Each structure stands twice: as structure tokens, then as C-alpha cells.
Amino acid sequence: MFPRPIAQTSPSTQLAYKIALPIALILWLLPLLGVALTSVRPASDLAQGNYFGMPSYFAYENYLDVFRNSPIAQYMLNSFKVTIPTVIGAVALSCMTGFALAVYKFKSNLLIFFLFVAGNFVPFQILMVPVRDLTLSLGLYNTSAGLALFHIAFQTGFCTLFMRNFIKSLPFELIEASRVEGVSEVRIFWYIVLPLMRPAIAALSVLVFTFIWNDFFWATVLTTSAETQPVTAGLSSLNGQWIAAWHLVSAGSIVAALPPVLMFFLMQKHFIAGLTLGAVK
Amino acid sequence: MSAYWKANQRKLAPWLFLAPGILMFAIYVVIPIIQSMAISLYDWDGLGVAEYIGTANYTELWSDDSFYTSLKNNVLWLVLYMLAVPAGLMIAIFLNQTIWGMRAYKSLFFFPFVISQVVVGLIFSWFYAPNFGILYNLIEAVTGERIAILADERFVTYGIIAAGLWPQIAYVMILYLTGLNNVAADQVEAARLDGAKGWKMLWYVILPQLRPATFIAVVVTVIGALRSFDLVSIMTHGGPYGSSRVLSYYMYEQALSEYGYRMGYGAAIAVVLFGIMMVFISGFIWKMWRDETER
Amino acid sequence: MVHLKKGVLAFTAALLMSTSAFAQARELKYYADFDPLPLAAFEALIVDFEAANPDVDVVLQNFDHEGYKTAIRNFLTADSPDLANWYAGNRMAPFVNAGQFMDVSDVWEANGLSDSLGSAKASMTIDGKQWGVPYTYYQWGIYFNKDVYKTVGVEVPTTWDGFVENCVKFQAAGIDCLTTGTKALWPAAGIFDYLNMRTNGYEFHMDLTAGKIAWTDDRVKATFAEWAKVQPFTTANNAALEWEEAAALMVQGKAANYVMGNFAVGNFKEGGMTNDTLGFMVFPEITPGIPRAEEAPTDTIHIPTGAKNVDDAKKFLAFVADADVQTKLNAALNQLPTNKNSSVNPDDPFLVAGFEALSSAYALAQFFDRDAPAEMAKAGMEGFQEFMVKPDRLDAILERLEKVRGQAYD
User: Is ipTM over 0.90?
Assistant: First the structure.
């Protein structure tokens, strides 16, 4: 395990590490603490120019206001309605495509891989009008399904890259051995390779969840009403026409950021449950 | 039928697995890209009738000062954003221990990536802000100069890049944490027995095994640097007077913003941006292919 | 027997159908981007409208302000409502030219709006036809901190020279004479518009924004020369500030004056200023003898061409244009009615001053980003921002604006 496990070092090093860790964390999260401080600041502080000083009083009701002034609970629900299908769809599709591109040798392998990677580099502003028109003609404009379908398709590019590389690093001998035993390709995929991909699936799920959860651009292009808009578009609705309600936006952002962090926290053990690859290599 | 499948499954299987992914991707990404390339040949305000003007948009782009400013800024972004890769690696190594509560620490270090970029941009804007900004006061205390980073055309892009590095480093950290989990423990032990440690260990034993993670980290950092839209939009709107513009933002300004009704021109900028990205992708793919055929 | 039953049945059926037709009101879809305060005001207006028109059911869908600007480009083609909010002047031009807003000159004719909404008519007219109905506007002017004036010992200026003289005194006291936050660009345009209208007149300003005058013209340079007089006394680093952050400076007493719109009063008061400490003055005269024009950006309602319920939409527009309706609405909005026959809350000194200023104005400009077409507006405002930071680059800036003028107007 790299670096040397801290348990193997001297007690003073261990202590130093245990102290350094929270300090590093606070320094790292200083901007976040700024956001948190703003979120409990009353609007009058901001109007007076008191941005970083102690708030004149702790306006915890900002958090309540966020739920009162805007249907943020509905927005969060909409975010889930878009994000979860996207994660499932994109990861499922890319497991398959990654498997195909990593395991099989065929002529257009590199070309197709290239296409997936290239498509993912595209600045999505360029896709706005064609995708909007397409979603309209499919009758999915202003629906969670329309937004999710776009995201599944777009994220497949990046996810394929991720999965293909991961599968490439798996020991090919396992597959060869199964083929020799006459196992069908589909069963190889389902019973042999897929279980090995668990850490990658976990990591990718968290990443895709975060991307989609924080997407703002497509939320505003493809959805327009409170019944369908995800939380990113909802947050910006806390800002008025002239007055930016930054204290509310900060509070809302913290609330909106909790699901992805929670998800990461929960999925961590899957990272650790990797296979003993080293043994075979 | 099933006999045919049994006999040929190794040839057909890849296509079976690829089909749904390729279909979705073609419909939602590939075809729209081609459509947009077509739009760049027109003069269109996005609402009414489009008028074909051939390569006139590109000719105009060639002599457009804002385009060159954006290009220069994109180069700055590309180069400086790469700092996220070693920084993320360092933090991942720092956190790769199994003490009590490490799961919580990892989650919290990841937090910047998870926050909406609108808020990241906002809080950094306040750090830099004249009079009350923490960084502003720090610079004044240290150098005696009163520099409002976001209003100064010399420093504005660097200021925004610094803000962008914060979530990006968190992102790279996650990728490396995954990679470090897959490092072969026995190789590490063997190297330790040989007396390798510290930097030598990192360079000769660990990094080669992290190559897939490094590859992805570099890819996403390049994508992030060339995308960089949200931060530029929220921190400076491309200002002051266009000095912090980047191509993705310029495209948005021309085609979709409050004062932008030039879809054709915007599409041309997007095509140029895409062309630049293609250079990188080709580079990556070529290097990857070379690495793999060597093995 | 059967005969009777049939009759009864038929009668009941007819009765049921007619009541259900009665209960099934005609729907009027309205898309808007109101802040909470205006939203409440409009919901009240809708209640009044529905009372006057019981067979119409207005369904209001409210968007957030920024998101609406993107959404409107999509929903006018994708999923068109019957009524939509937007702005006047060149801001509505792209949609008018694309045929996405409906010509409502007939509503203006039928309700005598050319008279009652006279001051706003020019901004609603393209090609001789009217394309929407204005329901509110607000004044721009100079807001100032009365306490700061007292401390430094200066009087409210009546002329431009007086204003500049005061600036020298403010600077001696370590206070910014003028503050603004040009990060979002448009606040600088407010300053330019007033300087230009006061130096060269309303017609010149309109011609300039219409692209008929070169930016390198001497008269334009004269406007910038006046601007150069106050530039050194303006908050440095204003390009890094949002307008609210600059407003905080005035609240704190670090700045004396602010060229702003009336919506800023809410912000000033939130920070602690009151009617006694916050002052308002009309932008002072620069070139003597030029009739006083003012800025009055207007909010409007339009009918998209894709609307399904056009008749009721037109009724709604006529309703919104009515004097009493506008009085009630603008009292809730804290802004000014566009109908000259409406009245204003006498207890709000800023509204009273604004109403006076606008009603007696020679003409009303819409604000630079609505009077000039989009591309010119953007380039112009960037130029203003650059001038405020680097006034010595004026010639290069004007040449660049002139280049854009060649492309933006066709």
C-alpha cells in the first residue's frame, strides 16, 4: 500500500498526521466555509457590504426561506428524477460499450472509441439548437425523460472511455479461460467481467451523479417549468431581477450539494472492494 | 439461428454490446455536431430564416480581436489547469491511509467538486473583491499594491483559473484515489524490500501503475480547461471589457446570450474550439494506441 | 311516456352540457419572469381580470429572471403561450423581425392607447406598427447620500459644473464622488446615456444608437470629454464590482452619488438608508438650452404569433393598459405607470419625483441596451467599461465601436 501505512510509522508521525489532517481540511474548505457563513447572513449585511465579517445575527431562517420562496423540494425531486435514470442508463450502456471495445479486436474498434471520446469533448453550446429541436419532435420537451435521455447519450462518451480503460486493465486470462470452457460471450460479460467492474461502476456512478446533478445549461434549455426543472435552475431562481439574494443562493447551494456528497460517502467501500489484481499480474 | 450465433458470437458480440450506446450517441451527439457545423455556414439569428453565406463567418473570425483574446486565454487555461493533476495526486496520496474517519475526510475533500460552480465563482469573486476581499487585503498587506484581480486585465484570467483549480483538484483527487486502490500491493512490497521509498518509489513503481488514472485525469482536465464556461460567466462575464473571454464563453455570447443573436457566428467559434480539441484527442488516442500495441 | 322520457333526458343532457361548457373556461397561457413582489402584484391583477372576464382562466407560469432570457428563445417556437413578458425597443426587435411577436396595433387603435400611453409609444413601434403593451417603467437619475453631502458641506448641484466642483471636495474628504459597479456592464451605459443626452440632445442620442452617426464623430468625443471630468472621481476597480456591491459603498458613506434606476432604492433601504438620508436628483444640465430627456426602461407584454387564444390575449393587453389597473399595479410594484392618466403614491418621494421627471420630460430613452441593437449594445457597453478603467484608450475604443457599427446595422 502506498504510501507507507501510517500504522507502521512512529507514534509521533501518526500524531502529526492526525493533527495535519483536520488543519489541511479546514484550509482546503476555506471557500466553502465562506459559503456557509454567507448562507446564515441576513440580507441587510450584504446590502451594507458586510461580506466576510461576523454576521450581525445568525439568519438560520435563510434555510427556511429557501424552502419557502421557491419549490426547492420539488426541484430536488426533479433532480433525482433526471440524475438517477441517467446514472443507471449511462453506466449500463458504457459497461457494454467499454466491454466491447476493450475485449474484442475488430477493425473499427479504434475509430468507434475515437468517436466516443471526441463527442465528449464537444462544447455543448454547439448542440443546443439541434438537441432542442430533436427533443421537441420526440414530444419530450419539458420532461424529465427528455433531459435524462440527452444526458445518458452524452455521458456515454466519457463513461465508455472510463470503462474501456478499466476493463483493459483486468486480466484477460480470466476471459480466455472462460472461453476455453465454452462459456458464451454474454455470460462472460454478465458473470465474469461485470462483478470485477464494481469499483469502476461505483466511481463512475458518483462522477456521473455529480455531473448531472450540477448541470445547469441543459436544465434551462430542455425544461421550463417548476414541475420539471432540476435544482440548479431552481437555485438561480432565488436571485431576483435586480437584487441578487446571495445569502439564499448560498443556503440553497449547500442543501443542493448534499446528495452527491452523501452518495460518495456511501459508495466509498466499493472502491476498496477491488479484486486482487496484483496476484494475477 | 442459435447455431449461427454460437459459431460466430465472438464476431457479433461486440456489435451487440455496442449497439445501444452507439445509437444514443449518434442521435444526440454526432448528428447534432454535424448539424451545427452546417449552421456555421449560415447567417442566422436563431429565430427566423437562415441565410447561406458560405465561409463568411470564418473570414470574419480571422480578423476578430476578441477571438484572439479568447484563444490566448484558452491556452493559458490549458497550461495552468494541468497543475490540477500533480496537485490532485499529492492530495490523494496524503489521504490514502486507513485511519478512523478517513471516509469522512475523503468525502469532505471531495466537496468542492460537488458544489455548483456558480457558488464557487461567487465566493472567489468575493475573495478577490476590492475593499473587503480577503485576498485583496492580503495582497495589499504584502505588496502594498491595491490590485482588484478581476478588474485588472493583466491578472483576471489567472484569478479565474485559480478558482477553477479548486474543484478540479478535488476531481483529480478522486480519480487518483480510485487508481491508488488498484495499485498492486505485492509490487509495492517487493520494491520496499529492495529499499525504494519516497520519491523513487512514487516515480518508478507507483506512477506507472497509475497510468490509466493519469490518462483520464489529464483528459478531464483538458476538457475542463476548454469548457471553463460557468466560472467565466459568473465571475467576470468575460470582462473586464472582454479580457477574460474564452472560446466557449465567446460562443455563448455570440449565439445565445442576452445580446447575442448570431447563431451562425457562434457555431463557427464552436467549430474552431472543437477543432482545437480534436488535436488533443488525436494526440491522446495516438499515444494510447501506441502504448497498447507496444505491450 | 317514452316520448316524455326522451324529452326529459334530452333536456337534462342539454342542461348538463351547457353547465359543463360554462364551467370549462377558456384558458389563457401567460409566461412571465417576475420577482416575488411583482408576481404578487400580477396575481392580484389576474384576479381582477378574471372577475371582469369570468369565462377566461389565466394560467400564469413564472420563470426565474435569467432563465427566462434563454427560455423565451425556445418557447416562442416550441410551446408558445398566449402572452409573454419582454422589453421594448431594440430588445423586442429580433422577435418582431422573426415574426414571433404578433402585431397588436389594433389593440392600440381600439383603446386609444396612442394617447394614454403616448410617452411609451415610440419604443413599442417598429415599422409603424405596435408589437406589445407597456405596463410599467421606472426612472433613472442620480441617487445620493445626504449625510455625506452634509459632512463634506456641499449643496445639491443644479448644473454639471457644480457637480464636478463638488467632486473635487468629495475627493479631498477621501470619498468617491461617483460610484458604480460595471461588472455586468449595463450600469456604465446609464452614465453614458445621460451624458450624451445632456451634452448633445435626445435626437442625437437616438441617431447614435440607431447607427446613423459615427462613433468617431466630434460630438461623441465631446460626451466622453465630459465623462473624463468625473472619471478620476469614480470608484476605482468598478469593473470588479456588481452594482449591489457599489451600492453598499454608498450606504456605508464611502461614496456620494450613484447614477442608477429606481429599483436600487429597495437595496439602499435594505442597507439602512431612509427617506431622510437618501436623496434623488435629476441628472443636471450640461449644455445649456437642450431640452431634458430621461431614461425610462419599459417592461412590456406581448402576444406570440403561435398563441392559441388570441382574442382573450388582446382583451388582457387592453386591461393591462387601463389607467386604474396601472395605478393599482404600479402601487404594488413600486414603479411608475405608463398610462398618463394613472396616479402615483404620494408618500413615496422617489416615485413622486420620478413621475414628475418623466411626465415633464421632453422625450424618453429606453436605455442603451434597448435603444441600440444587440451587437452594438454589447460592444458599446464594453467600450464604456474600458473607458472608465483606461480613459486614455478613448481613440482606440471609438474606432473599435465604429467598426462594430459597420457590421451591426444592416
Answer: no
